[in-house]
Amino acid sequence: MSIKDKQNKNKIPAKTAKVQSDGRLLHEFTKGLFKENPSLVLLLGLCSTLAVTNKVSNAIGMGISTTFVLICSNCIISALKGFIPDKVRIPAYIVIVASFVTIVEMILNAYISALAKSLGIFIPLIVVNCIILGRAEAFAGKNDVLPSLMDALGMGLGFTMSMLLLAFIREGLSSLGYDFSDYGAGMLSFIGGGDTLVIRGAEVFGGIKILGLPAGALFVFGLILAAINAVKDIIRQSKKNKSGSGHKAAAEGING
Amino acid sequence: MGELIAISIGTIFINNFVLSQFLGLCPFIGVSKKLDSVLGMGLAVIFVMTLASMVTYFIYTYMLVPLHIEFLETIAFILIIAALVQLVEIFLKKNIPVLYNALGIYLPLITTNCAVLGVAVLNVDRGYNFIQSTVHGFSGGVSFLLALFLMSTIREKLDLADVPKPFKGVPIAFISAGLMALAFLAADKGILDLFR
Predict the structure, then answer these.
(1) Which of A180, B28, B102, B155 allows an S-S link to A185, with CB 3.0 to 4.6 Å?
(2) A233 — contact with chain B (CB < 8 Å)?
């Protein structure tokens, strides 16, 4: 579903992107951050978004790995777009992506093995992350190297940001602190050690443990999507008011 | 035998591929709007996952391991799966057109379904033998179908429900999926002891 949907969505920007200018490049970069954010707006790459956001350190690792693969594959694919026959382009893309994923897997295993262990099966699964194949098909296969690079950077950063948002909420509320031990750093705790808030010897709050579990990921993600919808509605409403009778109060209400 | 039952019960109810391992979430949200498409997609996934588990087991044990190129696992597996999906598509088109018409449009989507590559990698990680891999692949497909089926029945009801406006559509689907995941959480490991 993802690739075709995205292709249709991106038809217009992909065609016009041939006109290279600084503004164009900036647009390719920023569109991935908000307007076409891969996981929160386009709902791509959900498996890794939800599965690894139980810890902030996992989300950072996954975000950087995916962004690296995305940048490399986008550049290579856009550079090779004249050589890859149209009929076998999808298998060719998959092989290119899989090679970079293998490289990432080996690097992680060699240097940050604790992180590799906690990401586990989701490192090889970067291959089937719809974002990467989607960008290859919808953008890199039709554009030059530089716009593809900017596109990959923006999409990768957008993906990382949305994972971080989810992970900050989930880990913060479930374990009342952030654990960075995978990177050799310590634990950053809100309550100074331990996982239960104790006031005068009484255990007051032990964190919302459910948010660390798979069910919590689905809850939090649903709530974030609803919040985005609500904000969009408010913005739309204020635009309507502005163009209609110029209610400044409504617009200011959003800014505040 | 008990172990095989434990693998399948564990995969379907306790470590449900979609709801507790987050494999195959894209089709879970994308395809679960209608019951018909869920059955087509689910059956196609069961078919491909079982086949993929069998084939990747042979490739891994008799090609990658003797040649000491286990690090090519990811590339090899995804290529096998892509080729397998193509083969299945051609075979069905030629020999069983009825099934092809039912499953046809879902087959290309399966290549990028995390659950299929996931089951192949998990089989290797857990060191399953051939029979165990096959059972794991089949029950993984069943767990996918089960989650999709439950979700689609809920979503058909949700269309009629009076949901707050920002939650309409996908957000409420995620929240209900979360509630389902909670229910599956209750299927504790204690169930497995019944089969030992």
Answers:
(1) A180
(2) yes
- The 10s digit of each residue's pLDDT in B14-55 is 888 888 888 888 788 877 877 877 888 888 889 889 999 999
Chain B residues touching residue A124 (CB < 8 angstroms): 73-74, 77, 117, 121
Q: Looking at the 3D structure of chain B, how many domains does it have?
A: 1
ipTM value: 0.85
Helix H, strand E, coil C: the string for A53-94 is CCCHHHHHHHHHHHHHHHHHHHHHHHHCCCCCCHHHHHHHHH
Tell whether A2 lies on the interface with B, counting CB pairs under 8 A.
Answer: yes
> Is the CB of A230 inside 8 Å of chain B's CB atoms?
yes
What's the total number of domains in chain A?
Answer: 2
- Does residue A202 lie within any of the structural domains? no
Q: Which domain holds residue A243?
A: 213-255
Which are the contacts of A67, defined by CB distance < 8 A and separation ≥ 6? A152, A153, A156, A157, A159, A160
The beta-carbon neighbor of A121 closest among B125, B167, B179 is B125
Same-domain pairing of A141 and A52? yes
pLDDT digits (tens, 9 = 90+) for B88-110: 888 888 887 887 777 767 777 78
Same domain membership, residue A242 and residue A129 = no
Of A158, A175, A192, the domain-final residue: A175
- Tokens representing B143? 């767990």
Testing the interface with A: which of B18, B75, B85, B150 to mutate, by most A Cβ within 10 A?
B75
Q: Is the CB of residue A208 less than 8 Å away from at least one CB of chain B?
A: no
Final residue belonging to a domain, choices A149, A175, A201? A175
CB contact under 8 A, B174 and A91: no
Identify the closest residue of chain A to B86 by CA–CA distance. A91
- The answer on A167 and A232 residing in a single domain is no
> pLDDT tens digits, residue range A184-208?
777 777 666 666 677 777 676 777 8
Domain span at B16: 2-193
Of residues B21, B79, B109, nearest to A1 (C-beta) = B109
